[in-house]
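Changelog note: in this version the structure field was regenerated for every chain. One regenerated record is shown below for reference.
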Amino acid sequence: MAVQTKAYLKTLFEKGDRPTAQDFIDLIDSLMHVDGGDLPDPLPAISAENLSNIPIPDPLPAVSGEQLTGITPTEWEDAPAPVSKMDDTHFVLADDRTAIYLVGRAVKIDRNGADPYYSHVVGATYDGGSGYTIVETEDAVPSDILSAGYYSFIKPVDQGGSVRHSMVGAASAAELAAHAASGGAAHPAATTGSAGFLSAADKQTLDDTAAGLLAHDGEGGATHPAATGAVAGFMSAADKARLDGAKLLKAGMPLVVDPYTTGAHSVAHGLGAGEHHVRGELICKTAEKGYSVGDKVPYSPDATVDGNSLSHSINDTTLTCYIGGTPKLWDKATNNNTLISAANWKLVLTPYLEI
């Protein structure tokens, strides 16, 4: 068992080494144990002249801030000389203080019998003849008697400090003032070609537009009443309910046949699977029975009139109709159901799919 130096112990634990049990014992014996059992209590007095090679822990142990006492933080430094007022925005102090009173630096002025006054330095000049520095402040100091002066220990960033001059200096007040109200040197009123402040006229136009839009709110109203069959307007609640309940239909390939051709007829409708519907109609090709060319007469795809039958079937791919005889049609001239002329009509069955 032996206490070894730190340098020696490091050589025992390098890459590729195989430390022995004795090496580990030496390592442990060379360390100061946390329970303090290896140290005499009390520690013997030792002259500082004999201290050498004292190990310092790395990293240093954390220390609670509660143990720190006697520290008084401050924001202000005392002025290096008494101050006196020259006028509302200037005070003077002895010697060259231009390196302290930097442009933009915050200052605090104590006034006899009144609260302190705060401002920022606009400029400082040294008069070598008189031996005084004249400091100009951004704001007027409303007092004739100044008891003490202070300057902020924080320098402006453009003077090597950490507070930006444009945030605290005299220039900032002018910049902010230029943004006040509409227009000004910083931002003129906006135009269609240039961004800027909202002018009073444009504000009024915007308010009027908003009022006009609000007049369209809800159902009916003075601007747009509910729509009717003859007048456009808002959709009423009843019409909305009807619209929501309506079924949208998609038309497929129609089946067009000669109504005199009996038997089965079919066509691939191209609609696919779903809920299907079929509408039938006779279309006039040559005027007869009081009908004109192009007239469409609804004709049920499943009808039997005086033994002349028509029926249909539809699946996901095909529409088929079955004609059992020549259709009859109401004759407008004689007011009777009579057979149609084969060459004068065509039968059209149109398939639909609900979507």
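Spot check on this record: The chain is about 15% helix and 30% strand. The first strand starts at residue 76 and ends at 78.
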